[in-house]
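Internal tracking record. Fields below are filled automatically when a chain is submitted to the structure queue. Please do not edit lines marked as system-generated. If the sequence contains nonstandard residues, flag them in the REMARKS field before resubmitting.
Queue: standard
Priority: normal
Entity type: single polypeptide chain
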Amino acid sequence: MGSISKKLGVVVTGGASGLGLTMVEYFASQGHAVTIFDVNTQAGHQVAADLAKKHPEGKVDFKFCNITSWDSQATAFREVYEKVGHVDIVMANAGISEQGVSSLSLADEEEPSQPRLRALEVNLTGTIYTVKLAIHYLKKNTPDPKTGSRGCIICTASNAGLYPFPVAPVYAASKSGIIGLVRSLDRSLEKLQIQINALAPAVLETSITPSKALFEEMIITPHSTLVKGIAQLVEDPKVSGAVAEIHGENVTLRTHHEYVDDDTKANMETFWKHGIA
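SYSTEM-GENERATED OUTPUT FOLLOWS
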């Protein structure tokens, strides 16, 4: 995709607040046509109106979308494509925390309660739906004559998907799942000339945490580093299947683990050759 000087069609899930809002503002400031997908109708419309005034060179729209619903996402994507005419960048960003003490940590219960899996449904299932729909619309694009790219998908994971996160194991599982999804899709999407990468932010101030007091004891990464990471992934079409860890002032690209031995690598290549598992 290279330089993003032309006006692109951008979709940002969870774009009405937090990291998503930073993404929306970045792309709007670049003059692109950005559509926010969110369940918060009031905030979504307000953000779209505010950013349209702040960045008149771009275009910001809002669509109600419940990312845990395939039908809701499919409808929203179709409407964006019909209105804008193309989808070039998809930020699969919407996510939630476990909102307090994890239901897996309640070890003193007399009878086990059913684990709360809402974080898994939103963060992982919702992202899978977003990625599936993004592929469908990105592959309609004519490859860029300079780079050969049809567009890119960037999924918001977390450094909790890279490191143990015992206070929120379901959240960690959802973010680890996103990293596995991105790394595993890279090779297939390469044939379609579509990039897919993930962001793994450290602690950035957002509305996802159940208590803002937590930030007072944390080392906070500025949102400007998130923007730096997004720009790096969008502007370099050679980067795909990577996880951009966003920490402090730095963006560190992490590739997948080295194979433990040649036999393991050979087996994985055999799966790829046959196309089934």
